[in-house]
Design a protein that fits this description.
The protein is mostly helical and 70 residues long. The protein has a domain of 31 residues. Helices cover 43% and strands 0% of the residues. The protein is built from three helices and no strands. It is elongated and about 50 Å long.
Length: 70
């Protein structure tokens, strides 16, 4: 989308676009959102919210669908 919005030529890399426009990549945005979500849960006054973070899997997933797997 950035390439279309900025009408960037074919030789400009996506990495350059993200850097020049100071926009995070999708993966960086997911990681940032997950960190802020964890921080909100840890600092929440309700103790039951801590149980939301305890569903850690014992094996590594091949198809990563959860933000915490990234």
């Amino acid at each position: 989308m950035l390439r279309i919005i900025t009408d960037a030529p074919w030789f400009v890399t996506n990495q350059q676009l993200h850097h020049d426009l100071e926009i995070r990549t999708v993966q960086e945005e997911i990681k940032h959102s997950m960190k802020s979500y964890r921080n909100r849960l840890e600092n929440h006054p309700n103790i039951l919210t801590l149980h939301l973070m305890n569903n850690i899997t014992m094996f590594k997933r091949l198809k990563r669908k959860s933000p915490r797997d990234l």
